[in-house]
Every structure is written in C-alpha cells, then in structure tokens.
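Worked example 4.2. Below are the chains of a multi-component assembly; read each line carefully before continuing.
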Amino acid sequence: MSDSSEINSPQPSQSVTRAWVRLMRAQQIVLDAIEQDLKVAELPPLGWYDVLLELARADDGRLRPYEMEQRTLLAQHNLSRLLDRMEKTGLVQREVFSEDGRGRWVMITEAGRAMQARMWRVYAPAIQRHLGDKLDEAQADQLAELLAALSQKSYRAPKNSIEG
Amino acid sequence: MSDSSEINSPQPSQSVTRAWVRLMRAQQIVLDAIEQDLKVAELPPLGWYDVLLELARADDGRLRPYEMEQRTLLAQHNLSRLLDRMEKTGLVQREVFSEDGRGRWVMITEAGRAMQARMWRVYAPAIQRHLGDKLDEAQADQLAELLAALSQKSYRAPKNSIEG
DNA sequence: TGGATATAGATGCAATTGCATTTATATAAG
DNA sequence: CTTATATAAATGCAATTGCATCTATATCCA
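Applying the procedure described above to all four chains together yields the following structure tokens:
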C-alpha cells in the first residue's frame, strides 16, 4: 500500500478547486435569482415546490415523510416543520398510516395541486431566464451529465463492514 | 416583435430543467459532505473560511465589510453578524476607517490566519474526496467552464434606464 | 415472552437567517 | 448653508434551521 498521506489527504488540483468554487457560486446566484422571482410573485420558497411536486407525482398524491426526506434531501426535522407550515396553509394534510403505527401519510390537497401549478408558472420562466438563457442545449446536456457524477455519495465504510 | 407570451414566459427545455435540478442536487450533496468533514474536525463552517480567505488575500489583511459582501455573496446583515462571531473568537478585528466615518476596516488576526490554514488542511482533501475523485481533469475544467456562464447575473433594467 | 435495539416522526431550545429599520455619515441639489 | 437623498454598517424581532432528545411503535434475539 502506498503512502497514506497521499491516500488520505490528497490536494485537489487547481481545476478541481476552480470547479468547486464555481459550483458554489453558480448555484447560489441562480438560486437567489429564482427565489427572488418567486418572492416578487408572492409565492412561497422553492422548498415548498419540491414537496408539492413530489406529492403531486406520487401514487394517490401521498407519500410517507421518510420517502419525502430522501427525495428532497431535507433533514428530518426540517421536513417535519415545513409540513407543519404547509398543513397550516392547507396545501397538504397528514393522515394515519395504519400499516405502521409510527408512520404517517402526507397527502397533497387540491389547494396544494393548484399552488404547485401556480408556482411552476413563475418557476419555469425563472429557470429559463437564469439558467437556460445562458447555455445552449448541448451545454445544458453536458452540464447535467457532469453534475450527475457528483451526486453519487462518497464512499463511507458501512458500520458492519468486514474490511477496515 | 413576436408573441409576448414567448418572450416573457418561455418554458425551459427538458435539458435545461435537468441541468437545474442536478445543479441543486450536486451542490447540496457535495456541500453537505464537506461541511460534515469540517464539523467532524471540530472546525467552523465554510462561511468562516470564505471570510478568512478573502481577508488573508487582501492587502494588509484587511477589507471593508461592503467589499467582503461582494466577494462572499453574503447578505449585509449576515456578514455583519458573522463578523461579530468571528471577532468574539478572535479571528478578526474591526478597526476605524478614517477616510469615511461610516466605514470600518475588518482585519484578520494571526489567529485568523492560523485558522484559515488549519481549515484548509481539512477542506482541501474534502474537496478532492467529494468532487475531485468523481471527475477527471478534463471534466473538472469542462464543468468549471460551463458553470462560469451561469454566474453572470441575469439582465435587469436599471432604474433610470430609458428603454422600457 | 421480554428486553435490547432500531425506526418514524415530533419537539424544546439555541443558533442562524431574513426583513425592516435605525444610526451615522456622506453627497447632491437648491 | 440647509434640506433631501444615498451609502455603510448595525440591530430588533420574527422565521427558519440545527441539534439533541423524546415518544411511540416495530423488530430482533435470547
């Protein structure tokens, strides 16, 4: 086995560091711009859209919170409270999940579906303006391709793994 | 002039939408992983690093808050409070800016420079692990290139613009 | 069966962020 | 000079997030 300092603490190349800095910048700038457009239209933030979209797509318009967690990457407690707020404004509803007493169903309401559609009418042109207008189709595909590679979670030895 | 509905509300193509979704995903996953590594090393969050790095690079190790704002993309009030916390832990120091009574200098301390270096020793391998290991050099360059296009702020008509 | 352990989701409390406003100073316009 | 307007930075307060823990139920294993 080679020198562990090279295995455990490799320096990123300049190219890699530049890609990282630009990833942070680009997403922040585009996200802020899109959120701003939503706010101007007096619509709720993007997190609400993500939740509504996942529910709208799901069978019977409902999901378990833990499923939503995985799909939205929201932390458990943040999702729980986001659902509180969305329930209070009537966009979703929590129902009992009889097959497992610990669980819940979260169901999208008609008002929720309407809000999802309403948000998309602002969100879609915002994506186009802040991202689409800056890339041609080939570049968008290329970017999506490269970014997909980054979303693979980094390897971590599982708890009960035999290999050290 | 062509149909205004096409000008004002263009739908993003599937490629563009996919690129956007993956941009959000990829940056969240990589950012969370890097922040996690910092936390495990009992180091402060990335925002602190950004501030320290900008100051360390600046002439005489000091900048005006509004300059830091532009460079870090932090909101004014958030930067102000981040500086409060950093000052309290001795990493930076606020000093009078005599040429403009409204302004301040923010200066990095020796402890601040030490912390920047200490954080880099964790941050650098984290960038490599969570991003560099997933791309080759050519891909990293390509990604950086594509992302650069997105960081150009979208056009907004300036207040006093003549054209409507 | 009966702990021990794991999982789903909620919640109390502290830290951080967002928003609006305030304070202080500078610059512009009459 | 004096008032109006703009800019730099700080701050009060509400909303959101993070962290740890709690409650309830389910599963595993002796």
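Take a moment to check your reading of the output against the notes. Confidence is low (pLDDT under 50) at residues 1-7, 157-164 of chain A. Chain A touches chain B through 53 residues (CB under 8 Å).
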